[in-house]
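Weekly sync notes, structure subgroup
Attendees: PM, AL, DS (notes)

Item 1: joint prediction request from the bench team. They want all two components modeled as one assembly rather than separately. Inputs as received:
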Amino acid sequence: MEIRYHSAVGSGLEDRLASTAGMDSVKGILLLTTPDQELLSAEFETALRELEVPIFGGVFPELLYDGDKRDHGALIVGLSSEPLVTTVPELSDSERSFRTSLDPDLPARGYETAFVFVDAHADEVEAFIEALFRTYSVELNFIGGGAGTLDKDQQPCLFTNDGVVEDAAVVATLSEPMEIGVKHGWQKIDGPFRVTDADGSRLETLDGKPALDVYRAVIADHAGETVTAENFFQIAKSYPFGLSRMAAEEIVRDPFAVADDGSISCFGEIPEGEFVTVLEGNSDSLVDAARTAYDHALSGKKRPDGLCIFDCISRALFLEDEFDRELAAVTAGDLPTFGALTIGEIANDGAGHLDYYNKTAVVGTLRET
Amino acid sequence: MSERQQRIQALYEISLSIGPKEGLEATADHALSGYLQKLNCSVGAILQRTTGPDSVDYDITATIPAAPYSNETLVAAIDRLPETAADHQSFVEELPITGKIDTGSHYYLMTLPEFGVLVLGKRGGRIDEITRSALKPLNEKLAGACRSQLVERQLRTERNRFEAVFDALPEPVVNTVIDEGVERVKRVNQPFEETFGYSEPTARGQPIADLVVPDTDAEEAEDITPTTLQCDSDPREIRCETTDGISAFLFRRVPVDSPSQEYIHLYVDISAQKQYQQELERYERLVENLPIGVFRTTPGPEGTFRLVNQGFVDIFEGESRATFEAQSVSEIYVDPQDRQRFSDQLLEQESVEGIELQLQTVDGNPIWCEVTGIAVEEAGETVFELALQDITERKERQQQLAVLNRVLRHNLRNGMNVIKGNTSLLSEGIDDTTLQTRVTAIKQRVESIEQLSEKAGTVRSLFDRGREVNATVEMGRLLTELRTEVEEMYPDATFRIADFDPVSVRADVRLKLALRELVDNAVVHNGQPKPTVTVTVCPSETKRADNWVDISITDNGPGIPDDERRAIETGEETPLQHGTGLGLWLVYWTVSLLGGDITIDDHTSGTRIVLTLPRAADEGSVPTTSPEPN
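Output from the run, pasted for the record:
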């Protein structure tokens, strides 16, 4: 495995990609970058098309490399086995059956792991994740997350040999197995509340009342703070919602905005009729969870050759300076590490259901063939 | 959150995923996804059970992952399913079944009552027993939803089949429903739109009685309104206004169920059939009223009647058609051998025309009939279709003519020979000039009568050749020959042939006979010192010039006596209106037998007789705009 960090995305990246692709040991490239307009240039698109090995990856708010987070640059990971890359377009098309784009026989053909990157601004990310699970269940181990920028505008953010695409998903399957740890560390402080009215990711009423009223009451009781439209984002990053699962951690849904009608918008869908809880976290619980994820990923019998980390950008925003502790927790060993801060995480631990997570730390181990 | 609370919440959320979707597979798929998500399971399947007398099969309705046989947990669970009907009962009684495979994964098989089995699998964990027990009512709900989908699928299949037939029918069809006592259109097919001029969006919801309007002029108008027909009505004929006017339909109103609020109206257009039927009836009336016999028989020496018309009954003096149902065809033959011969001839030739047969009436009176017919194949057997005309009178007239001819030609001529011989002897024995004059007069009269007898023989020979003409005559050559003969016979007369374009007519030697008769008459009965006869040939002035030719013979004589002329023009003689001989009749009959016409015109200096004859078939057409002959 060849991991290269290139600090200037807009300069010389094409050459670095070409030189990596030209290495005998490299059969494919995983490319993680921070946003840069040069990535949308025709020259870069041409460079991607001219690569002689498969390439996949995405644009993320920040990168993780060598125990640090980087707010600019590119990570070029040369893979020692050739990935099979599938691009699923039109990820905002609610009428589209994503299962038809997925080959159910990949596990039977020896593929065990899949990197999955989605355009975080697409509307049907969860439907696509559900299609992945229904097609492959736990026959593939999934790791990845939402790509894009924290801006509201959707723009090309996924790398393929056809160029940089948007409103899509990229699935790169590898024959190497991967041990994956998934944990978030957020704890319930109140609930459950029944979702009596919701529209996709917009939570309108809980127990028949405006969602903001319920949420505001919980925060007031628990922290003595008054939630307003102005301070909502600042407070909400500490108090996400949770969707319960039997015998598993709750699925976190990160609220980020309120509307005048008292509805709350979240990253990720909240199905009407289900129950949500209000969660809270602190630096210790989150760092402990990240460490648990790391430990789980390294619990395999064979020593891996590298660590892949996808941690939620909102955890970094919540932990602020304490995020260094989390990074230290997931890079405790001497293994080479790479990863990104994502907008939503995609992972399964090989046991249960595959979900689209928020505010979660995902650690995967890579072994070279 | 307590474990119990979490379980209740999860079960409630699973219940939300159980409900009707777009079909059985979607319903099962959605529910299975809910089970796996809320119970955090890794694999699952819903299998539908099909039992036969000696077999039991489980077919996968939904499965996660999509390729179930690549997952060892699912494979282990599916292996627990019974393979034979004998194992089925014990398997069902054993449910729910739990199992574990070597990798540590657990699987669970739970009954879906009256549908099949739910399989759940979990890698690296298990579903506790309390939760499994609590799933029972959800599983029953899921089974119910799947069963409902099966019923709906069956109904949908039936509906699709019905709609396929509905749309494929080439006849107008309407689906109606009773709404507050009014039968309104629910659906119409394309032929209905085309026939009645109402598109489905226009017709939908409208009272059917407003769209299909009965023809109020029809005799049974008050009884044919579609909606007034009873549910169990037999097909009825109705007449309705369509885009093409009034059309006749065979109409049927069928209830969808009983008692029904929904009906299917079927309109089979029988307009063409009705028209054909009316034409057939007209044709049958025509045949029935023909004065000839039309009948059908089977072949053979005996033969049976299949059909006779009234004309046949009349000819054979039967009481009714039934008279002939009981007798064989051979019974109408005077000589049964004739029947055998006729049948053999018709079978061999397949058609006959104008066969004269001596038959007999029901009472045994002999009659002569002329029979024309064909042999046809019908329903695997040969049938004779025949037309018969009573020619008894004609045959008797022919007999009379034959006798009269014999008398005229033989007896009369022999008598004249005797008179002629005695007159010669008498002439030699007397010297008295006065008496000698008498004797000469007798001689002349005898010669005249002999000529008349000869002409009568000629007339008979004309008719012996009949109307069949297979030859053509080139008019230039014919007239040249005629001129040679006339000039030799009548050196004092002048015979002129006007110039004309070469032309041939459809005729035979009889034409020359007729022309010679006319020229003889024109010269002999001329009365002028210098008789002059002119013949012209030109395209017809009275018929189509490209098909007919006028041959005109003009003389400078005194003209034809009125009585003789009228007899020819009217075609018959009476005691008060008759000619003096056979000459003009010979011409008349000749032209008639050749298929032409004769016209007698007054002329400034005599008479003009025009024979109009058909142009020979291989003659080129003549411009009709060129009336003047060359």
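Discussion: The CA atoms of residues 283 and 322 of chain A lie 7 Å apart.
Action: AL to compare against the crosslinking data before next sync.
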